[in-house]
């Protein structure tokens, strides 16, 4: 039998070996008046919840411990213990609230929506709001925001309830009093609150975005910056024009460009250092070799793991920044013009050499949005002045191993060609435009084929209209044919399930008298689509022998009557109607 105030071996709560079988014992300890026993009981419950990937919520809810934990963080728990030391009692209270909020927050991080609703019904949100308002130290403040973030992530309804209770106001009021590590956690929790669900009420977003833009401008912590940028990007998705105007007025463009320029500068430094390692020639001396090997080990291999993590974070930062810039470039011309004035073309030119494929894709996407604004404002020459940029875009549009980047780079070329002058068209052609378009046709995607053909059509038309000579056929058309473009269109017709009239009209326009082509294409049509194929031939100036072949082939499948425009039967004309009756087997 233990003496009063002492724990027997059977009653002692061993936190490090907490098991679910002993849950009732932990709850009994929490209900006691012994401060240390209460603390150990709460710590044991927290360990049970945190140790499992899926918290044992059924057992926790059945034990009755959840309302007690909520009372603790709500200041409704009776903290009076057998101690008369007020400082000790306050210390125990702070530790209890920390452990209780930790346990509850992990419970809210589970997968079951019904369990989360039960937590909310028990007063979870109100409890964490009380902790947020009355937190006595940064750690408790961080736990309060984390707990709200976990439950907000589960439901728009829960998130809106939290925001309408004024959580954002309290967070912004206190966040700058926190040390860096705590501030990082708070911003991460804010990201959970705002993630994936754009808030329609501007008043619930505006103060946060203004704060985050300032934070990004001043912070040197990459994790904090990345989380802040992700929130800004996510919350710019509704009322796009209004919100983009707001973040532009807050100075977001200069902040983002500074970040990207810094990252590009650090990247260039790393490339210079690597170049030095590759190219420096050392004297063949034993002492020199020892010095080089030892220093190379300590200064290269040891920090390599950290460097990889840092590089990944830098890539995340760049991608988050580019998503915001992409939203701006998708806005009005006046909004996109802000990017142009700040030098977006220089930024893009550098980022297209980035090692991360997603960064390249985003950079091409932004450029494809910027080019139409340049065209609209008669500034397309700014793009064509960037010779390296054009060369890189053409190269990316021809890289088969990175389809998303290739597609966005192709969009850039297509947009540039649509409004290019004759001289600018020649620059694109000399850079490999026709090669790039032919290779894009080979992707055989329904969206890309019409765009590539329209761009080629624009290119060929510009030559025809502005060339000083009257060379026939068009040398650019000949170049496409030499590159296999015409044969490729034949192959595409065989499998294309889109609107074949686009391909038909293109071929008819630039190869109007190629009877052998007509015959080849016709033979490749499946009999089931002959009816659809007939209009294909009406745009060609067909020789009589070719037309006879076509009609003979049709007649093997259909009884048909050839009727000219005057209604005379059996006379072969270039403008014909074909009336079909399906043969009976």
TrEMBL record:
Q: Name one GO molecular function term.
A: nuclear import signal receptor activity
Q: In its keyword annotation, does this UniProt entry include Repressor?
A: no
> Which keywords describe this protein according to UniProt?
Protein transport, Repeat, Transport
- What SMART domains does the annotation carry? ARM
Name the InterPro entries on file: ARM-like (IPR011989), ARM-type_fold (IPR016024), Armadillo (IPR000225), Importin_alpha (IPR024931)
Give any Pfam family that matches.
HEAT_EZ
GO BP field: protein import into nucleus
Q: Name one GO cellular component term.
A: cytoplasm
Name the protein family. Answer: Belongs to the importin alpha family.
Name it: Importin subunit alpha
Organism, by scientific name, is Reticulomyxa filosa
């Amino acid at each position: 039998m233990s003496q009063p105030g002492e724990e027997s071996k059977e009653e002692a709560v061993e936190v490090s070996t907490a098991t679910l079988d002993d849950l009732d014992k932990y709850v009994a300890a929490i209900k006691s008046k012994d401060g240390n026993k209460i603390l150990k009981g709460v710590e044991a419950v927290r360990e049970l919840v945190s140790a499992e990937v899926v918290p044992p919520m059924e057992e926790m809810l059945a034990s009755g411990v959840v309302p007690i934990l909520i009372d603790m963080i709500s200041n409704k728990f009776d903290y009076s213990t057998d101690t008369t030391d007020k400082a000790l009692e306050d210390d125990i209270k702070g530790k209890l609230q920390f452990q209780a909020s930790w346990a509850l927050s992990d419970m809210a991080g589970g997968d079951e929506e019904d369990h989360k609703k039960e937590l909310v019904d028990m007063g979870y949100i109100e409890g964490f709001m009380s902790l947020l308002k009355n937190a006595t130290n940064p750690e408790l403040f961080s736990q309060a925001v984390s707990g709200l973030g976990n439950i907000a992530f589960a439901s728009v309804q829960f998130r809106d309830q939290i925001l309408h209770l004024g959580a954002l106001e309290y967070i912004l009021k206190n966040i700058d009093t926190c040390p860096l590590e705590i501030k990082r956690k708070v911003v991460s929790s804010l990201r959970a609150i705002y993630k994936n669900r754009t808030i329609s009420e501007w008043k619930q977003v505006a103060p946060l975005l203004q704060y985050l833009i300032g934070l990004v401008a001043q912070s040197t912590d990459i994790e904090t910056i990345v989380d802040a940028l992700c929130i800004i990007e996510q919350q710019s998705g509704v009322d796009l024009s209004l919100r983009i105007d707001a973040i532009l007025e807050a100075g977001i463009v200069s902040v983002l460009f500074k970040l990207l320029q810094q990252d590009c500068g650090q990247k260039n430094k790393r490339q210079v250092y690597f170049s030095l390692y590759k190219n420096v020639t050392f004297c063949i001396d034993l002492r020199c070799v020892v010095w080089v090997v030892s220093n190379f080990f300590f200064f290269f291999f040891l920090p390599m793991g950290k460097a990889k993590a840092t590089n990944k974070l830098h890539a995340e930062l760049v991608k988050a920044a580019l998503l915001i810039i992409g939203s701006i470039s998708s806005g009005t011309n006046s909004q996109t013009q802000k990017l142009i004035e700040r030098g977006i073309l220089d930024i893009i030119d550098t980022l297209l050499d980035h090692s991360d494929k997603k960064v390249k894709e985003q950079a091409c996407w932004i450029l494809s949005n910027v080019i139409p604004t340049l065209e609209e404002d008669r500034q397309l020459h700014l793009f064509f002045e960037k010779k390296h940029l054009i060369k890189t875009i053409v190269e990316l549009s021809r890289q088969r191993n990175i389809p998303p980047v290739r597609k966005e780079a192709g969009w850039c070329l297509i947009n540039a060609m649509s409004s290019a002058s004759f001289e600018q068209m020649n620059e694109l052609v000399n850079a490999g435009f026709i090669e790039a378009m032919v290779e894009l046709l080979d992707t055989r995607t329904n969206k890309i084929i019409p765009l590539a053909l329209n761009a080629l059509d624009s290119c060929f038309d510009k030559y025809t209209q502005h060339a000083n000579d009257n060379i026939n056929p068009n040398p650019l058309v000949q170049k496409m044919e030499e590159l296999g473009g015409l044969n490729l269109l034949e192959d595409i017709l065989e499998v294309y399930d889109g609107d074949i009239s686009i391909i038909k009209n293109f071929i008819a326009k630039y190869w109007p008298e190629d009877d052998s082509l007509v015959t080849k294409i016709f033979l490749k049509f499946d009999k089931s689509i002959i009816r659809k194929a007939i209009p294909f031939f009406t745009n060609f100036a067909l020789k009589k022998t070719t037309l006879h072949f076509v009609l003979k082939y049709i007649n093997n499948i259909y009884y048909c009557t050839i009727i000219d425009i005057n209604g005379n039967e059996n006379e072969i004309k270039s403008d014909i109607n074909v009336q079909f009756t399906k043969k009976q087997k």
